[in-house]
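hey so i finally got around to running the thing on that chain from the lab meeting. sorry it took forever, my laptop kept dying and i had to restart like 3 times. anyway pasting the input first so we r on the same page abt which one it is
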Amino acid sequence: MSGYMTDNADSATDEKRWAILMASAQAGNEDDYRTLLTELSRAIKHYLLSRIGSQHFVEDCVQDTLIAVHQARHTYDPRRRFRPWLFAIVRHKTIDTMRRQRSQQQLARQQEDILLQEHDTTEDVDSSITRGRLLDNLSPQHREALTLTRFIGLSNAEAAAQLCISESAVKVRVHRAIGKLTRLMEADS
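ok and heres what got predicted. didnt touch it at all, straight out
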């Protein structure tokens, strides 16, 4: 897979070195594992910067990838090449991070649209202002879950995927958000 780095000699050296370090780490050598993660961090960052440029979420991609490598380290087979295994994880985590970034940006825009939407009647304006104030009383986690499921219309499973939490956690957050909004509205009455 010479496309991952520009210098084929360095790629071959890295390939062998990383495979040896990973096999040693799998055998329990913490120093080799620490060395491997340090080297991978630099290589992944270089790879991402060369492909997607200096985006604000590159460091998030690197960290997400290192976590995934840690979680999947037992799946690496030392008889196989290391780079394809690694960069499959890099690609998947980068796509996940980019989707999450895009979703968060869309969510922020949609929340802003909901709160700033112009209405024709005074009653609608008052209702919008009250709803905006009410949503501001929710924690960010509850507000996100409620907005994704009730305003945007995502299923609990889709919202869970976007928030990187379980589906049951989404249900709990929405339930608590609705409960708090109900109590606030009753207090205003």
